[in-house]
Design a protein that fits this description.
GO cellular component, one term: membrane
Domain Major facilitator superfamily (MFS) profile: 1-468
Largest sheet: 2 strands, antiparallel
Distance between the termini: 22 Å
Subcellular location: Membrane
CATH class: Mainly Alpha
Oligomer: single chain
Number of strands: 2
CATH architecture: Up-down Bundle
Strand content: under 5%
Radius of gyration: 25 Å
CATH superfamily: MFS general substrate transporter like domains
Keywords: Membrane, Transmembrane, Transmembrane helix
Protein name: Major facilitator superfamily (MFS) profile domain-containing protein
Structural class: mainly alpha
Helix content: over 70%
């Protein structure tokens, strides 16, 4: 959970920091001088200001009122430039994410996670200085940040597959990823309050605090973490035996795989319908999550016309509720599976449908109904959005841990590659359509989000599963070995009525 918190806080808080850094009024006035991109794409589209938009426009506030509301930024970065900064880490992430799952499975998730968080912390600590110096160098620094961020989820997925039995996968998936929501709820409230301070202009403190938390985590992780339960100093032998009984039969260490000559079934993974289902769901989830984490502060400022502290509350609410709902749903899903009320596959499909279709409906209502005169309704809708989004954890995320426990790191890498496309697409969509920050522009963005969520949900309903795939089951030891003098071989008959001499071996996982 802590590694996800560190990763997300150092990445997503750029959305809050950007709101504090940018002089939005000046940027939107600059956009007024240009031909709207929407007219270039759809010549018949109208971008005229409606009466309700005129009432809600921040342009009606004078400069002193804007500063009073907490928005005292000085950077004159256009919406496109802001979107590039937000997406820069995703570009860096995309460059190396192809290999992070492999590194986790081969070299172990402990060291991979440690290197990743340390690199992110260094980049975050340098961000305020570089941002004030040069926009393009800052863009490059955010890309470097993304390179180090990519191991976060694959390393935690690999750890979860080794440390927790299948009956607890939904619960542990919810707990591990709850760092995301803690960062986006509690962290956002802290960030908006830091923004309002006059010390160092406020916004650099967001980066410094996130970096400090990251460095602290590195020290604790290096001391306590181990790749496998069998190597831990803090588990009893009984606990180690239990985890081996539950997980060891579906897992081989890298040394065992090398000794047996077992190759990673990449072709089977890529062509698997189960893999396609989880990566489709991950794409839509990442698009949705990035849209809200990175741009809800901007939407709340421009469309809902909230001051900075209200903005923090509105931005934090959906993720705080998501934190509660995902853990509750994870526990409930595991209860239903233990009682055999639902099969693992049915459970995953039900909860993923709740996430995909529920979030799509909320986006549609916000696009068609919400404006600055309906802030209470917006707050309620954002609460429901967080509730529905929590279903993705006992849904597609649990499925990704279940279909190939032996290759959980590699599966996580595939889902993150798909998710990286979603992360990159969200800022691109916002950067293209949103120039003046009007309700109409944001409505089009939310319409795209509706489409993506519904497509992802339908694909998972058709192809999704939580069953271990045949290509992910390691072969059982079945070979003749020269025994020592005291060894008495056991003769067993396999399903084809062939006699095999087997020797009991001790596995390390």
């Amino acid at each position: 959970m802590a590694v996800i918190y560190c990763s997300i806080s150092m990445r997503s808080h750029i959305g809050v920091a950007m709101v504090c850094m940018i002089n939005a009024t000046a940027v939107h006035e600059m956009a007024e001088q240009k031909v709207p991109k929407l007219n270039l794409l759809i010549p018949t589209a109208t971008t005229e200001t409606t009466p309700i938009e005129a009432q809600c426009s921040r342009h009606t506030l004078n400069q002193s009122e804007i500063v009073e509301s907490g928005y005292k930024g000085t950077f004159l970065w256009s919406t496109e430039m802001q979107s590039l900064i937000i997406s820069a880490s995703f570009y860096g992430n995309f460059l190396i994410i192809w290999f992070t799952g492999y590194f986790c499975d081969v070299y172990g998730p402990r060291i991979v996670a440690l290197i990743g968080v340390f690199g992110m912390s260094v980049a975050t600590c340098l961000s305020p200085t570089i941002a004030s110096w040069n926009y393009y160098v800052f863009f490059g620094l955010r890309m470097i940040f993304g390179l180090f961020e990519s191991p976060a989820l694959p390393s935690m997925s690999a750890m979860a597959a080794r440390w927790f039995p299948p009956s607890e996968r939904s619960t542990i998936a919810a707990i591990i990823t709850s760092g995301n929501q803690l960062s986006a709820s509690l962290g956002v409230v802290i960030a908006t309050n830091l923004c309002s301070l006059h010390f160092l202009d406020g916004w650099p403190l967001i980066f410094y605090l996130a970096a400090l938390i990251g460095f602290t985590w590195c020290i604790l992780w290096g001391f306590f973490a181990t790749d496998n339960p069998s190597d831990s100093k803090f588990l009893s032998q009984e606990e180690k035996d239990y985890l081996f009984e539950e997980n060891g039969k579906h897992h081989q260490s890298s040394a065992e795989r090398k000794q047996s000559g077992l190759k990673m079934p990449l072709k089977s993974m890529i062509l698997s319908k189960a893999t396609f289902a989880v990566i489709s769901a991950q794409f839509s989830f990442n698009f949705t999550n990035t849209m809200m984490q990175a741009y809800l502060p901007s939407y709340s400022r421009d469309v809902l016309v909230l001051d900075l502290k209200e903005n923090g509350i509105f931005t934090a609410l959906p993720f705080f509720i998501q934190l509660i709902s995902k853990i509750s749903m994870g526990i409930f899903a595991d209860f239903l599976k233990r009682k055999q009320i639902l099969s693992p596959t049915t459970s995953c499909k039900i909860f993923q449908s709740l996430a995909s279709f529920g979030c799509g409906i909320i986006y549609a209502i916000m696009a068609l109904y919400v404006d600055c005169t309906k802030t209470t309704e917006a707050l309620v809708l954002l609460g429901f959005f967080g509730f529905f989004l929590g279903g993705a954890i006992p849904g597609s995320f649990t499925a990704s841990l279940s279909i190939a426990p032996m290759y959980a790191g590699m599966i996580a890498s595939f889902t993150l590659i798909a998710g990286a496309f979603g992360n990159i697409l969200a800022p691109a969509v916002v950067g293209f359509f949103v120039e003046k920050g009007t309700r109409f522009e944001w409505g089009i963005v939310f319409g795209v989000a509706v489409l993506i969520n519904f497509i992802g949900g339908i694909i998972f309903l058709i192809f999704g599963t939580a069953k271990i795939q045949l290509w992910a089951i390691p072969p059982k030891p079945s070979k003749i070995e020269i025994p020592d003098p005291d060894f008495v071989p056991e003769i067993i008959e396999d399903g084809a009525h062939n006699l095999n001499v087997v020797q009991t071996t001790v596995h390390k996982f």
